[in-house]
Amino acid sequence: MNPRRLTLILVPYLWLLALFLVPFLIVLKISLSDTAIAIPPYIPKLDLSTGWHGITAFFADLDFENFVFLAEDDLYWKSYLSSLRIASISTLLTLLVGYPIAYGIAQAPEEWRPTLLMLVILPFWTSFLIRVYSWIGIISNEGLLNQALISSGLIAEPIQIMNTTQAVYLGIVYTYLPFMILPIYSALDKMDVSLTEAAIDLGCSRRQAFWLVILPLSRPGVIAGCFLVFIPALGEFVIPSLLGGSDTLMIGKVLWEEFFSNRDWPVASAVAVILLGILVLPIMLFQRNQERQQETDR
Amino acid sequence: MAQPQPQNVFAPWADPAEKPLIRFEGVTKRFGDFVAVDDLNLDIYEREFFALLGPSGCGKTTLMRMLAGFENPSEGNIWIGGQNMKGIPPNRRPVNMMFQSYALFPHLTVWDNIAFGLRREGMDKDRMRVRVDEMLRLSRLEKFAGRKPHQISGGQRQRVALARSLAKAPKLLLLDEPLGALDKKLRQDTQFELMDIQEKTGTTFVIVTHDQEEAMTVASRVAVMDHGKLVQVATPAHIYEAPETVYVADFIGDVNIIEGTVIPAQGNRVDITYAEGKPPIRAATDKTLVPGQRVSFAVRPEKILVSREMATERTNAVKGRIEDIAYLGNISTYHVRLDSGHLVSAQMTNRNRLERREFTWEDEVWLSWTETAGIVLTE
Ligand SMILES: Nc1ncnc2c1ncn2[C@@H]1O[C@H](COP(=O)(O)OP(=O)(O)OP(=O)(O)O)[C@@H](O)[C@H]1O
Ligand SMILES: [Mg+2]
To answer: Which secondary-structure segment (H or E) carries B175?
Structure first.
């Protein structure tokens, strides 16, 4: 292998090593430690000044106590399950909203498409936090939505949307919609229009052509979009804590509380390590989907 | 390039009692201000192999898409099998189209691609299997039934597309430049295959092609289009031997065009003066021409004899100097500069080996042709 190629390959690996593997190992180490009143708030600490003895002593002090604790307290596995449920349902909802939008953009006249795509991405230009806060202004009991509904006489009492799981779904769907639309759009856009025409020519109605040809062919985009929504939604913290109130159990929120409210870094780290473990499977499936798609594209 | 089959075998267009399968009746198609197809009238008969020929952008694909139902005529009517197609969607027309891009479904195997149209019809499983297998055999794709489109070659893909469009046994099959992507050898094979399939299935074919040789090979009739209009519709032999306009003569095959003025002679003959002080060209024609009318005389290169001595048995003989020779193996094309300044090409078969060639550059030669070798065109 020549040095040029070696450098080219090394750069991404070094990048991954520095920004992913090393932080992960640090978190893993903390998750095996015990909490303590100190700065940073855990022991043991690696003391290299005592040489080999220090290293063995350090490793001897690491244990799986925190993981056992997580398994015993039902708060944690309930949070994981609840997160999985919320992430799955909101991924499905995002798909239901995102697919028609992506399809609409792909069908729109060529000259409109860049503008429409721009509109999809436009929300990213304002801060995520501001956008989530502004939803509070819309859906809270005194918010725009309830005011409008009451003044139009449709309802007498405000509907409770704020601080419910529904509000979390709303927030996740809204926030992650572009991640669903863009890969589906790119799959649809690549598709030759004559495929639809061929299906119709062979006796399909427009609707059948959609189910039999367009939908199956956009599957890689759908899968990519679902993972891009599901993976971050699973660990989501901001949306459930701002919109979901105390009712919504999500692991991201638990993690935050362990970390900042309880200052229990080891347990928080253990929560994070398990979360990563849960995510490895979908990430690997995502990877396989991308690879397979590249193969058929060739 | 002449048509091998005798013309009296199959010529429904010559029989006034015959009902056309397709009728275009004053069909116009506009895209905004642009007129893609211009007030077109055309009848195509059952079992025909009808070729549409014309330069890029002349409206061939638009014509096909109107037949298939993907575009609606702005004006006029299209009839298929005696039924007005106005408002009938593509999936309810007795027409199948083979797309220029093949449009194979990438997520389905070759077998499922071919079965696609049959499934929509609700054909029962056993009959469908028989039919698909028959199509696979016809297109020699048995070995590839289980492959996906991206796992087979371009030529095989093209045969899948053909098999898929034939599977439903449509009354009418539309082929839009079906062989465009194939190399010459495969193309010729496929042309004969197409003709074979057409003969076996009795389907009516309408084919769009850029390749005039292809049109001559496969077609029962050829339509030459220009700017959304039909310039001439005739059998390949007729269109080659008796083009009606200079445009058609020039579009199909090589031709020498010499312009001149007419002096009527006795019988169905005219003399065409084309250069000062040179004997006029004498040609046979049915057209009634007035003295002094400007005409174009068109003669194909292979109808002209090249010789050292003046060939006295032929009516027309002119002297010139060989400027260029294009050696094509079986034939050679001689580009000869006449004394009048015209450049005329003449084609001769190479009966002798190259090193024993009779003529070479700068040789003085005589070109001669008979009265009936060329035709007189007025437009
Ligand atoms: N959807 C459309 N909108 C506007 N103009 C169109 C449309 N489809 C075709 N045209 C125009 O109509 C004319 C005829 O197009 P068509 O595709 O029928 O040409 P063609 O004879 O098939 O050409 P080629 O041999 O290059 O395929 C072209 O000038 C084209 O630009
Ligand atoms: Mg075309």
So the answer is: strand B172-176
Which residues 6+ apart lie within 8 Å of B200 measured at CB? Answer: B138
Residue B44: C-alpha distances to residues B98, B194, B240, B274 (Å)? 18, 18, 20, 40
Burial category of B182 from C-beta neighbours within 10 Å (exposed 0-12, middle 13-18, buried 19 and up): middle
CATH number of A259's domain: 1.10.3720.10
Q: Please answer whether residues B66 and B72 qualify as being in contact, where contact means their C-beta atoms are separated by less than 8 angstroms.
A: yes
Helix (H, G, I), strand (E, B) or coil at B185: helix
For ligand 1, atom 4, the nearest C-alpha belongs to B31
Residue B107 is nearest to which of A194, A204, A217, comparing CB atoms?
A217
Three-state secondary structure call for residue B141:
coil
B365, two tokens: 């030669």
Query: Tokens for A150?
Result: 């009451």
- Nearest partner of B50 among B84, B13, B14, judged by Cα: B13
C-alpha of residue B203 to centroid of ligand 1, in Å: 27
Amino acid letter at A231? I
pLDDT tens-place string over residues A71-92: 888 889 899 999 999 999 999 9
Q: pLDDT per residue over B87-130, tens digit each?
A: 899 999 989 999 888 999 999 999 999 999 999 988 899 999 99
> Are A91 and A228 contacting, i.e. CB atoms less than 8 angstroms apart?
no
Cross-chain residue pair A203–B89, CB shorter than 8 Å: no
Question: ipTM of this model?
Answer: 0.78
Alpha carbon nearest to ligand 1 atom 14, residue: B59
Domain-located, residue A43: no
**CB B246, CB B298: distance < 8 Å:** yes
Question: Does residue A36 belong to any structural domain of this protein?
Answer: no
- Whether B120 sits inside 8 A of A203 (CB atoms) is yes
Asked if A201's CB is within 8 angstroms of B107's CB, the reply is no
Task: Indicate whether A142 belongs to any domain.
Answer: yes
User: What is the distance between the alpha carbons of residues A66 and A29, in angstroms, rounded to a whole number?
Assistant: 12
CB-based contact B346:B334 (threshold 8 Å): yes
Total domain count, chain A: 1
Q: What domains can you pick out in chain B, each with its CATH number?
A: 12-249 (3.40.50.300), 256-377 (2.40.50.100)
Domain that holds residue A124: 64-297
> Which among A244, A234, A252, A251 is positioned nearest to A136, based on CA atoms?
A244
Is A124 a domain residue?
yes
What single-letter amino acid sits at B160? V
Beta-carbon separation of B70 and A197 below 8 A: yes
Residues of A with Cβ-Cβ distance to B103 under 8 angstroms: 192, 194-195, 197-198
Nearest to B168 among A202, A204, A296 (CB): A202
Chain pair A-B, CB pairs under 8 angstroms: 59
pTM of the model: 0.78
